[in-house]
Amino acid sequence: MQKTASSPDRTRSTGPIYRERLAPSLKILSAAAIVAPMVSLVFVKMNSVVALALGVASAAVLILVLIFLAPVISVSGRELLAGRAHIEAAHLGEPLALSGDEARAVRGVNLDPRGWYQIRGGIDGIVFVENTDPDDPVRSWTISSRTPDRLAAAIRRAKSGASA
């Protein structure tokens, strides 16, 4: 059968179901912007215009580096990617979307020593998922998310697509 626009290929993923960049909070980005006056003060004896330009440029570069090097969480097709790590959705248990005290407990006192983590400071939400692969030494995944309910729903959808 020929594939046409009216019969899309459902076996292949067309794009991510969910994608989130764990960029630093505004508080951290504004703290990085403090680099501008510090760099400007170093070069002010040479030329005030050059000092100002170098200060602004260095702060802009630092902020861009912080944003673009932030890990990306993505669920696409049948796979969960968190930073550089990935796992097939078929090997994941039921995801738990947590926030508040429950999320603090999972990040703190209830932290699984044999788990895998993509935790970022300043992001309250957490998604906790058990790893059901018996051959994998990692027992669970703990992932920060600004929208943990949406990430958990995307993992569920990927799991249902993997089992189909």
Give a quick set of tags describing it.
single chain, 164 residues, alpha+beta, 2 domains, 4-stranded antiparallel β-sheet, 4-stranded mixed β-sheet, 5 helices, 37% helix, disordered N terminus
Indicate the proportion of strand residues.
Answer: 15-25%
| Largest sheet features | 4 strands, antiparallel
Spans of at least 5 consecutive residues with low confidence: 1-13
Compute the number of strand runs. 8
Strand order of the largest sheet: 1-2-3-4
Please count the helical segments: 5
Report mean pLDDT, rounded to a whole number: 87
Q: Per the principal axes of the C-alpha atoms, what is the gross shape?
A: elongated
The helicity comes to 25-40%
Order of helices and strands: EHHHEEEEHEEEH
The separation of the N and C termini measures 21 Å
Computed over alpha carbons, the radius of gyration is 21 Å
Structural class: alpha+beta
Write structural notes for this entry.
This protein is of the alpha+beta class. It folds into two domains: about 20-70; about 70-164, no CATH class. Helix content is about 35%, strand content about 20%. It contains five helices and eight strands. Strands 1-2-3-4 form a four-stranded antiparallel sheet, with helices on one face. A hairpin with a 2-residue loop joins strand 3 and strand 4 (about 85-90). Helix 2 runs antiparallel to helix 3 (about 50-70). The protein is elongated. The protein starts with 15 loop residues before the first strand and ends with a helix. Mean pLDDT is about 85; it is low at about 1-15.
